[in-house]
Amino acid sequence: MTPSLVRTVLGDVPAAELGRVDAHDHLFLRSVALPGQELDDAAAAGAELAEFARLGGGALVQWTPYGMGRHAAELPGLARRTGVHLVAATGLHQARHYAPTVVESLAGPRLAEVFVRELTEGIVPGVRAGMIKVAGGFHGLDAHARWTMRAAAEAHHACGAPVGVHLEHGTSGAEVAALLCDELGVAPESVILGHLNRFPDDRALRELAATGCFLGFEGPSRTHHATDWRLFAALASLIDAGRADQLLIGGDTVIASARATTGEGPGAPYLPRVLWPRLAREFGKAVEVAITVTNAAGALSRGAGLHR
After folding, report:
1. Domain presence at residue 29
2. Is residue 26 included in any domain, yes or no?
3. Using alpha carbons only, what angle is made at residue 129 by residues 195 and 157, rounded to the nearest 5 degrees?
4. Residue 231: which domain range?
5. Beta-carbon neighbour count of residue 73 at 10 Å?
6. What is the pLDDT of residues 152-165, one digit of tens each?
7. In the chain, where do the E strands start and end?
8. Angle, nearest 10°, between helix axes 202-209 and 231-240?
9. Per-residue pLDDT tens for 189-202?
10. Global pTM value
11. How many domains does the chain have?
C-alpha cells in the first residue's frame, strides 16, 4: 500500500514521519488588520522553531495564506536547521486582512488556478504549499468566503490538498461543512475546522463532529484568553462522545509579542512544554498520541490527485 503523504516545504514525506504536530500556527504573518505586530523576523522564527523542536515538536503547519507575508523562501532553511517538518499554505483569508488592491488583483485570474499553482509549482520556486487556508465570517458566510471556498474545493479536487478553515470566533462551522462537503464534494476528512476553542458550546461542537471534519483547537491565546479555561472541558466532552480521532491542537501565534522565545509567550513551544503533557495526564497517552500524531498525520495527508 502506498503510504499517505504530506507535502512539506522540503518535499513530500510519509505522514507517519511527522512526529508530534502543531497543527495550526504561524512563523510569519502580516495583516493590515494588525499594524505594527507583524511576524516577519526570520531569526525570531528560527529561535521559536528550535525551542519547539528541543521540547519534542516534530512538525508545524503554517496557516499563513496568499498575500500575508508567508516568507516562503525562508521556510526550507528553517526546516533544515531545526529538523522540524514545515507545511506551508496557499489560500486566501478574509478580505479585511488585505489592502483592497490585493483582493481586486485576484478577481481577474481564476482563484483556484492560483491555489493549484502554489500547490504544484510552488509559492516560490521549490517551495510548494501543502494545504489550502480559507476563512468564514462571524456567524455566516459572505460572498468573499463563498468565493474563496469554491476555489479551495476546486483546488482540492485537482490536487488532493487538505482545506483548513479559519472560523471567525469559532462560528459558522456548520455552514462551512455544508458548503465544502455537502455542496462542493470535499471529503470531510480533508477539512479542518479551526478555532473551535473560541466558541466552546459542547452541543454545537458535537454537532460539528458529526460532519466528520477534523476539529481544530488553538491556544492558549492572549487575544481569546477568556475561553482558554474551557479548552480541556471541550476536549473532554468530545472525547467522551467518541470523537478523539477528529481532534487537533495548534498554537496559532499571530503577533510577535506572543512568541515564547523573543516575546511574552506562550508561543509554539507551549504545546510540547504544557499542553501535550497535560493531554496525556488528563486523557491518557493513547488519546494524546491520537491528537498530536495520528490525527494530524491524517488531516494533513493528501487524498486524490497525489500525482500533482
Report:
1. no
2. no
3. 85
4. 37-300
5. 14
6. 999 999 999 999 99
7. 5-8, 11-14, 21-25, 59-62, 85-87, 89-91, 131-135, 163-166, 191-194, 214-218, 247-250
8. 50
9. 999 999 999 999 99
10. 0.96
11. 1
